Write the structure tokens for this entry.
Amino acid sequence: MKNLSRCRERCVYCGADKNLTVDHVPPKLLLTRPYPVNLVTVPACFPCNQSFQKDDEYMRTLLCIDVRASKNTAAQSNLPAVLRSLQRPNARGFVEYLASQTNLSAILDQHGSPMGQVIEVDNTRVNRAGQRFVRALYFAETQTPLPVGALVRVGAKMDLRPKDAGTIPIARALKTLPDWRNGSVGTAFSYVTAIGPEFSFWFMLLYDFFFWLGTVDCRAGSRSV
Ligand SMILES: [Zn+2]
């Protein structure tokens, strides 16, 4: 984080105009060095920026240890750091938290043993991260902050497939909006968006397997920042 001296900028998340810092989306913690040249940065106040750290660490751990991230170079470069951080004494609480989210899979292999463990995703955390990414990317794409009161709905999903329920209606809805854009940050993250005057749709993909689908409704309770 570094301080911004530019005036008239506001936090893209809460609208505050004091204690502004630079927030990266996706956060640098999820990327790998050397960092891509096209990092997405937005103004964010210090309290908002600080409040993201636990969610970022949670997502990095959850996603980098997932076998589906094994082909993604950014995720794989982060894996040693993730494993090291889990061994730190002060990571104990976090490890216990992750363990508490873990259930034996009901699927058995040919020998009758459970096929490893699956970690239940903390949807509150990953959806909060997705909402933050949408707000940041909206600003990056339009140079306008979303109204603080805009309704940002986000759902996270692993391994989205074209036949999954919900995919076709979303694809149809996307077609109704003419302003398509897409972007990527290194190999870790990419997104597609269709932006209309009141609505926008967002597909975001992290580490080649973790999706967020997002919709933004600027009409609902919107007030300008
Ligand atoms: Zn803020």
Remarks:
- The two ends are 22 Å apart (CA to CA).
- The chain has six helices and nine strands.
